[in-house]
Write a structure and sequence with these properties.
two-stranded antiparallel sheet; disordered C terminus; globular; mainly alpha; single chain; 69% helix
């Protein structure tokens, strides 16, 4: 390709990069803002501490007077990469052929998981006095992880698992290192690698003490979150699930607000209670499979074939699901979330809202629906009702009455994730696609909201809505950004929030699982959209418009270059997803359809196979070969593995294995 062809093809990216790089140097407000912030350091207990306030922080504050050449270059790079991202993923025949020819490196996921863990270990050996080195190294590791994760986009997400890596770990117990992604987990992995550097960059601007420990927590948490999204061995998933809790507990407990210890303990107790239930369910499922096959395994693909007795099946479903509902969080196990968000430092709130909560929604789709499709199908209408009443509507009403803007955003997460769970409970292709894209949307828009709340807290050290009013007069850029993110949060067309909520509502209306209640659920979901507009636009009106009566707000500086650099990628992604949703939906379409079809067939067969006393194995041909690729080779369940099955049950299973009409019967049973 000639130089002229390169310019012709990539001119939009070049133009975006130039526009970002030629931003004016600013009017000096940033320096004033930095000094104003310094006046409030110490004693407020959230993000600001004075222990290690060395000369480099003061130099950084003075440099905030305008966009430095490096900051302008960073904004230009962000703009250019965003345009390249859209061009690269835009559907085209040539792009598809090139992707087909690209091989999969089986160790890529291992690198993505291992890189932050190795970085965290390296941080422990760095002198704590070298603050710039610690910050730069952490950002470099997280940035390298994001760039490496883009490699995942080079492979089309066809049915089945990609970038699969399998190693024997504890053979005696059948525990393996088994990681892989599909079109569903792809975007959640990319969301994690995208958000982490932004959260770290924002944290380094406000947290001034114990930087070494902060860097360790950020890197360690990143590795654990990525591991949870790609683990296909239940022991491995549980390990990463628990490892996530430690750094978040530390981040809230050390750099949190006045009631940080209470919030950290509450987070720990709630999560551990759910984890113990899930562990009990895992152990029982593995034991039942061992009785059937004669071999131990924790592999998700192998355990998907197990049909437990009806009572045990329901108990295990609840054991897994309660753990996931706590993490989401769903009513009534949601009360840890507002406290954790309010007390957490800004970077911790961003990671908690944008990524950690999504592990609960993802895990319900992958494990609760994958391992126990029968109970998930039969309880769908009841769970959808809880998602609407206890999530969407309750969360919105409580958010509306909050006087603390950060607590308002926290309760808005309860409402938004209620939509995600509604899409999963309805079990339609549209609903599941909408739920997955809404997980990404919530991570982007709510992450931006928490950053914006952190901006105003840095200036005033209060989050009380009554303390503000008329801010648009003195902070026009900040007001504009807040309004854009508000529109995304309430689902205005053209922003990222619209497409996800629309698909979930349409999927709810068309859901067979919700039966005669689908119309009522749809009305409830639509009412939640209206309530979201009420509480979000209400706080915008109170904070930014009307008279500027509080004298403390009359000289507040607008968004500084550092804050603008942290917010820019999120603002851009709001419009990229909102205007080009097909880029994201096409990549997950085949995986979602495969998951939906498998759930429909397997849930029906589980009902046919299940009895009151004995566990059984579904035939392998119930599942697609692409799904079982990588599953361990175990017994067929006939000889010793057939313990608990009588002769008639084995004959029935053999007949079903060859029954060509089984899928149709399963569909009828599921309906």
């Amino acid at each position: 390709m000639s130089a002229l062809d390169l310019v012709t093809h990539y001119w939009p990216a070049l133009a975006a990069g130039v526009v970002g790089a030629i931003l004016p140097p600013g009017d000096g407000q940033g320096a004033d803002g930095a000094h104003a912030g310094d006046d409030h350091h110490g004693g407020h207990g959230d993000d600001h501490h004075g222990d290690d306030h060395h000369g480099d922080e003061h130099g950084e504050a003075h440099a905030a007077a305008g966009y430095t050449p490096w900051q302008r270059a960073g904004l230009g790079l962000i703009a250019a990469l965003t345009v390249l991202f859209v061009q690269w993923l835009w559907p085209s025949g040539a792009a598809a052929e090139a992707a087909e020819a690209t091989g999969e490196w089986s160790s890529l996921l291992n690198v993505l998981i291992g890189l932050p863990f190795v970085g965290a270990a390296a941080v422990l050996f760095m002198p704590r006095q070298l603050l710039s080195l610690l910050r730069g190294f952490t950002l470099a590791v997280l940035g390298a992880g994001f760039l490496a994760s883009l490699w995942l986009l080079t492979v089309p997400m066809t049915v089945g698992w990609h970038f699969q890596s399998i190693k024997e770990w504890i053979p005696a117990l059948g525990i393996r290192w088994h990681v892989a992604i599909d079109g569903i987990s792809l975007w959640l992995v990319l969301l994690t690698t995208f958000i982490a550097p932004i959260a770290a960059y924002a944290s380094f601007g406000s947290i001034k003490n114990r930087i070494k420990e902060l860097c360790f927590c950020l890197l360690f948490l990143q590795g654990a979150m990525l591991g949870a999204f790609v683990a296909l061995d239940l022991f491995l998933f549980f390990l990463f699930w628990e490892l996530m809790l430690v750094p978040m507990f530390v981040m809230i407990g050390i750099w949190g607000g006045v009631e940080k210890i209470k919030a950290a303990i509450k987070l720990f107790v709630y999560t551990m209670a759910g984890s113990m239930l899930m562990l009990a369910g895992i152990v029982y499922l593995v034991w039942a499979n061992q009785k059937l096959t004669g071999a131990y395994t924790f592999d998700y693909l192998a355990l998907s074939r197990v049909v437990l007795p009806r009572g045990a099946q329901m108990l295990c479903f609840w054991a897994f699901s309660i753990a996931f509902f706590i993490k989401v969080p769903m009513w009534p196990v949601h009360t840890w979330l507002p406290d954790a968000h309010v007390q957490a430092p800004t970077g911790g709130s961003v990671i908690l809202a944008a990524v950690m909560l999504k592990i609960g929604t993802y895990a319900y789709l992958r494990f609760s629906m994958g391992l126990f499709p029968g109970p998930a199908s039969s309880l769908a209408a009841n769970l959808a009702g809880i998602a609407i009443l206890g999530g969407v509507i309750y969360g919105a009403l409580v958010a509306w009455k909050q006087s603390d803007v950060k607590r308002l955003v926290a309760y808005s997460s309860v409402a938004h994730l209620g939509y995600v769970m509604l899409g999963l409970f309805g079990v339609t292709p549209s609903g599941i696609q909408g739920a997955v894209i809404q997980m990404v949307n919530h991570g982007v828009s709510t992450g931006a909201l928490f950053l914006l709340v952190g901006v105003i807290y840095d200036r005033r050290h209060t989050r009380e809505v009554s303390e503000f009013g008329g801010l648009a007069k003195v902070m026009p850029v900040y007001a504009t950004l807040f309004l854009i993110v508000t529109f995304a949060s309430v689902g205005v067309p053209g922003t990222n929030g619209f497409i996800g909520e629309f698909m979930i509502i349409m999927g709810t209306y068309a859901s067979e699982r919700l039966g005669t209640f689908s119309g009522i659920h749809t009305i409830g979901a639509a009412a939640g959209v209206i309530l979201a507009a009420v509480y979000m636009l209400s706080v915008v009106q109170k904070m930014f418009f009307g008279p500027l009566t509080n004298p403390k707000n009359k000289h507040l500086p607008d968004v500084t270059p550092r804050e603008g650099l942290a917010l820019a990628p999120l603002i851009l992604m709001i419009f990229v997803i909102g205007l080009f949703p097909a880029i994201f939906l096409d990549r997950m379409k085949e995986s979602v359809l495969s998951t939906y079809n498998q759930f429909k067939v397997v849930s029906g067969q589980a009902i046919l196979f299940a009895d009151e006393r004995n566990a059984k194995l579904l035939p392998e041909d119930t599942f697609s070969p692409a799904f079982l690729k990588g599953a361990p080779s175990l017994g067929s369940g006939e000889g010793e593995a057939g313990a608990g099955e009588d002769e008639q049950a084995r004959r029935d299973r053999g007949a079903r294995r060859g029954d060509g009409a089984l899928a149709a019967r399963a569909g009828e049973a599921a309906r």
